Amino acid sequence: MVTLSVNNTTVKIDAGELVGYEVNGHQFIHQKGSPGWGSADTEMFPIIGPVNEAGFRVKTPKGEAVQDQHGLLRQMDYQLEHQTETSAVFVKEYQSGTGVYNSKFPEKSTEEKLTWPYDFRFEKSFLLTDNSLEIHFKVSGEEAMPFMLGYHPAFKLHSKSPVILAKGKEISLDEVLAVGSRALQVDDCTSITLRDEKEITIETEGFGNFMCWTEVRNMVCIEPITFYPYAVEQSNLHQGFQELKDTAQFKVVLRPKS
């Protein structure tokens, strides 16, 4: 467990997963073991969304890749590369064609191993400041590699009627619940505020969109994404790819209201 701290703020990171962000005694992150989801955050890469209806296959310029929901990155382990009192850097590296064990097999998937036809390096870094937590993502790999990226943090809810503020509009928890597993789309948006017992704003660079998901009332996932996967049929998921040019960098800032 990596712990970052400054003033009255503590961040806990378990093998690259953000499992705690506590500010003046208030915990913003969904706690593992609580109802709703077995994780606290994850990354969706190199695809976002399900592919079960497409035979767990995704089209790429190098042929079909075997993927499961939200890609193979989440099935890989992070390595801690660097750490200070207020920062930490984690890395995952992948060699093209390597089979990655799929934890959804066999209960929820027919595919035991997932593969991707490109090499890549994925870096996730945390920087704790006096008034925010910055999470940076850096993707490097083969030129023109197709990919999508989504960040999937879960926020703990403390009140009965939290509100999500996006693009000048209010979104209720009931509206998110009503959409179900597809997740509520918030397109062309770089900042969302979650107004609960305490208020926190999620600011982004490089993603451009969000989707919101929960199936319980004690947490909500507010997810920056490069592409909303339900905009196309699963067999056409490749339409949401962007191409890697040397490196791609993305940023998420969690900014609690002081």
Task: Tell me what the structure shows.
The protein contains 1 helix and 25 strands. A hairpin with a 2-residue loop joins strand 2 (9-14) and strand 3 (17-23). The protein is mostly beta strands and 258 residues long. Pfam families: Aldose_epim (PF01263). Keywords: Calcium. Monomer. This is Aldose 1-epimerase.
Keywords:
258 residues; mainly beta; Beta-galactosidase, Chain A, domain 5; 9-stranded antiparallel β-sheet; 4-stranded antiparallel β-sheet; 1 helix
Give the helices and strands, then pairings.
Layout: E1 2-6, E2 9-14, E3 17-23, E4 26-27, E5 43-44, E6 57-60, E7 63-66, E8 79-83, E9 87-94, E10 100-101, E11 113-114, E12 120-128, E13 133-141, E14 146-147, E15 150-151, E16 154-156, E17 163-166, E18 169-172, H1 173-179, E19 184-186, E20 191-195, E21 199-205, E22 209-213, E23 219-225, E24 242-243, E25 247-256
Antiparallel strand pairs: 1-2, 2-3, 3-4, 5-15, 6-7, 8-9, 9-12, 10-11, 12-13, 13-25, 14-24, 16-23, 17-18, 17-20, 19-22, 20-21, 21-25, 22-23
Kindly summarize this structure in a few lines.
This protein is an all-beta fold and 258 residues long. It has one helix at 173-179; strands at residues 2-6, 9-14, 17-23, 26-27, 43-44, 57-60, 63-66, 79-83, 87-94, 100-101, 113-114, 120-128, 133-141, 146-147, 150-151, 154-156, 163-166, 169-172, 184-186, 191-195, 199-205, 209-213, 219-225, 242-243, 247-256. The strands form 7 sheets. A 9-stranded antiparallel sheet has the order 8-9-12-13-25-21-20-17-18. It has a 4-stranded antiparallel sheet with strand order 1-2-3-4, with no helix packed on it. The chain has a 4-stranded antiparallel sheet with strand order 16-23-22-19, covered by helices on one side.
